[in-house]
Amino acid sequence: MRKSKSINSTDNKFFRIAKWSILGLAGFLFLAIFLLNTFFFSQVVDWSLSRIYKKNKIKIEYTKTSGNLFTGKINFDGLRITRSNNDYTNFDLTIKQVELNIHYFSFINKPIRFKYVTAENVRGEMIRVKPKPWSLRKKNNFIIDSFSVRDAKLKLTSQYLKTEKKSIDVVIKQGEASPLRRKYVLLDLFFKSNLQGTINNHTVKITSKRDNGSRHTEWKIENLDVATLRVIVNRRLRWLKSGILFIDVDNTWKRDTASVFDSRWRFRISNPVAEIPENTSRLKALLLKPVVKYLNSDKDKYDLSFTLKLEDQQFKGHASLDAANLWKSVFTGLTKRMAGSSITGIKEKYKNYKGKLKGLVN
Asked: How many CA atoms lie less than 13 Å away from 188 in the CB half-sphere?
């Protein structure tokens, strides 16, 4: 009996010490966060931004900041984000107002998770110095539950292009993506978002809807000239010299969580001019020959549709649509479709000729 009492008293003493230790630690953390939040909030923000510059050479400055470390809310006024002297991509962006809310436990656990991030009145330029089908680094992962941007005007320049036009002007009236994940940033921005804007004054619209566990996303791009499209898709589409395009894309997930989805593409091309580029391999030239002949025929308009099977995994970790092989898949499908249309036309002409010849013999 005495042994059991002594064991119980030892256990109780241990639990009392553990309880007061935990309470003391919690109180210390609360006091530390309170002092930081009350007296050193801007210093904590400055320290965090200096860490970003040290890791990524991205400089972030602001006119004013406010917020609450207890709730994770941070507001910035007059934000400027710059990177220069990078071998591949540089930028200079100003944002009038940014609001974000970090999940409290993101300070301890990874990935960093934001409840929301909103940006208003975005201006600036992004410059691609040279192409690189680069992938995002595995570390520094983040998830934004709700991302939105309003009133953005950006100039995108690809210095390395061997074309007359190297820049495009992008305007985003309103855009939102829920969620926006670093690992799948392209998929979330282009295939699971809502956006209204223009590219070189040509209307661009992306709409995404969930319905009974499935998802449906549509793109609409109107009156897009080939010169502008070639800036977007970089080295692709060299065989199409000029023309006006209307592009409709229809993406369907049978389940919102499905990893494979059907992507239906429709290109309507007005007044195209095509040619086989110099230094084209014999195999490519053989495939392009009927395509060029088809586009340079007497027709003023062409309407071409095809379907692709796309996978979430092909976008994972990539930061450009070129790196994710999207343009390669799309324009390979388009080329094959046009080549098929050309061959079908030749077969029809042969069939008609054969019928006329048979009638003449009879």
From this structure: 21
Four-residue CA torsion sign, 152, 153, 155, 156: positive
- What does the block give as tokens for 32? 């530390």
Structural domain contains residue 37:
no
Contact 226, 211 (CB under 8 A): no
The confidence score (pLDDT) of residue 359 equals 38
Closest residue by Cα to residue 76 from 89, 94, 88, 90: 94
- Between 247 and 41, the more confident residue is 247
266 within some domain: yes
DSSP code per residue over 70-97: TTTEEEEEEEEEEE-S-SSEEEEEEEEE
Helix%, strand%, coil% for the chain, nearest 5: 35, 40, 25
Asked if residue 106 is part of any domain, the answer here is no
Whether residue 97 lies inside any domain: the answer is no
Q: Is the pLDDT of residue 357 over 50?
A: no
Beta bridge partners of 217: 208, 251
Report whether pLDDT(99) > 90.
yes
Q: What would the pLDDT profile of 57-93 be if each residue is shown by its tens digit?
A: 899 999 999 888 778 889 999 999 999 988 888 999 9
Residue 110 has pLDDT above 90, yes or no: no
User: Which residues span the domain enclosing 269?
Assistant: 200-362
In our burial notation (b when 16+ CB lie closer than 10 A, e otherwise), range 212-229 reads eeebebebebeebebebb
Domain count, the chain: 1
DSSP 8-state assignment for residue 135: B
pTM metric for this prediction: 0.74
